[in-house]
């Protein structure tokens, strides 16, 4: 009985060693992949910052003003001036209409009317469904 126990223990030890070996290589592969992804993210962030700098450089007001002047014949763009903008106080806001209150409001009778209206709608839907054979 002992030799069988020794053989099973030895085989279990070999299986655990094989498992640890595979896990070690899988972990190393995952770490290499993570390092590669981090490098790619860093490169993309750098490229994005370069593109933002180029965008800011190309959208300089003096450059856009010069381009509008050079292409006036084609685009017919006029330079912007501060007098073209208005103030918020100059905007006319619509006044919401408020219905006049002519007398006391009975809130309970309004609720009963809503309940009756819903009951009528349910009866109409049931009647329509019954008429269609549903």
Radius of gyration: 39 Å
Strand % is under 5%
What is the straight-line distance between the termini? 75 Å
What kind of sheet is the major sheet?
A: none
When the domains are counted, the total is 2
Instruction: State the helical fraction.
Output: over 70%
Describe what you observe in this structure:
With 134 residues, the chain is mostly helical. The chain has two domains: 1-81; 86-134, no CATH class. Helix content is 72%, strand content 0%. The chain has helices spanning 2-58, 61-70, 72-75, 107-131. The mean pLDDT is 84. This is Cell division protein FtsL.
Task: Give the gist of this structure.
By secondary structure, the chain is an all-alpha fold.
């Amino acid at each position: 009985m002992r030799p069988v126990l020794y053989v099973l223990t030895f085989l279990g030890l070999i299986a655990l060693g094989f498992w640890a070996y595979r896990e070690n290589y899988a972990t190393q592969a995952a770490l290499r992949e993570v390092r590669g992804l981090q490098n790619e993210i860093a490169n993309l962030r750098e490229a994005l910052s370069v593109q933002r700098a180029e965008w800011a450089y190309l959208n300089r007001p003096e450059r856009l003003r010069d381009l509008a002047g050079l292409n006036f014949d084609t685009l017919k763009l006029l330079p912007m001036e501060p007098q073209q903008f208005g103030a918020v106080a100059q905007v006319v806001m619509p006044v919401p209409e408020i219905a006049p209150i002519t007398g006391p409001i009975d809130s309970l009778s309004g609720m009963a009317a809503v309940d009756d209206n819903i009951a009528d709608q349910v009866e109409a839907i049931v009647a329509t469904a019954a008429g269609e054979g549903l």
